[in-house]
Amino acid sequence: MESAAGELFLIATPIGNLADITLRALETLRRVDLVAAEDTRTARKLFNHYQITARLISLHDNSSAKRLDDLLDKLKSGAQIGVISEAGTPGISDPGYRLIQMAAAAEIRITPLPGACAAISALCASALPLDSFYFAGFLPNRPGPRQRRLEELKEITATLIFYESPRRLNATLEALEEILGDRPACIARELSKVYEEFLRRPLSQLRLLGAEREWRGEITLLVAGCDRESLARDPQARAAAENQIRTLLADPDFSKNHSNRDLVDLLQAEFPFLKRRRIYDLVLETQ
Ligand code: SAM
Question: Given the CA of residue 193, which atom of ligand 1 is nearest to it?
Fold first, then answer.
């Protein structure tokens, strides 16, 4: 079915329950010229279940530049190509991004087919605030980068969403409690599968639970965002912020070319839970 204009379809597939696939996804998988799949064996199982006979090719994070160039050439010459990941929405903590970027740069039409995504299913049943959320994906494995990443996330007020492996979950719960404080949280396990489970408790209780039971299956972890008012009430958090401000003000590169008012504005944006008057006093104190 090659035509003048090729098209790239980003097709969401089930994250557990095979019935979680849309009619449009099935219809598209049946009609495209080629499906680029993260794992051709998983794709084959899905295809067998739904009697799909599409041609499959593998596309993963280690795919060669040549594989990507070939796919782009096909799109440019009019091919309709579907992208699927092992589960859920392609590109979400899964391969697909490089091809999406290349197709966009070549002005190829990109059509997302909405469907399952563990982060969104977990979020909407977590009972944590839904009005704004921050998808943090997998945390870095190494302790240093992991701690730095958590420090970056500490003041985000949106609900935080992480993907996590059962093996690392206990260590992650501990690190989260230590760096973010004891916040409301939720473990969403085995979504859409037989043993689906939601554990909605503060991080400290989830950590204690982890000492008693062995985590299994696929896990999405959600943590309430930073509550600025409670930070403002926390003397330790205030003292830590004030120390950071003193260090910043002592750096001539930070202070130079700024009026006191500019400095206060900059610092207030960085530390919104501190009172403006207090920041102003700190600025005067360091002059
Ligand atoms: N692209 C997928 C999506 O749209 O959700 C995510 C792929 S990522 C490589 C896999 C991670 O997603 C798992 O390690 C787990 O953290 C989360 N996940 C996937 N399926 C899940 C499920 N059924 N229940 C809970 N979490 C799941």
Answer: 23
Task: Give the CATH fold of the 7-116 domain.
Answer: Cobalt-precorrin-4 Transmethylase; domain 1 (3.40.1010)
pLDDT tens for each residue of 191-202: 999 999 999 999
User: Class for domain 119-225, per CATH?
Assistant: alpha beta
Q: What is the mean pLDDT of residues 156-177?
A: 96
Q: What is the mean pLDDT of the chain?
A: 93
Q: Mean of the pLDDT values across residues 83-110?
A: 96
Does 20 sit in the ligand 1 pocket, CB within 6 Å?
no
DSSP string spanning 54-113? --EEE--TT--HHHHHHHHHHHHTT-EEEEE-SSBSTTSSSS-HHHHHHHHHTT-EEEEE
Dist. CA 163 → ligand 1 center (Å): 6
What's the CA-to-centroid distance between 38 and ligand 1, angstroms?
14
219 pocket-lining for ligand 1 (C-beta < 6 Å): yes
Residue 1 has pLDDT above 60, yes or no: no
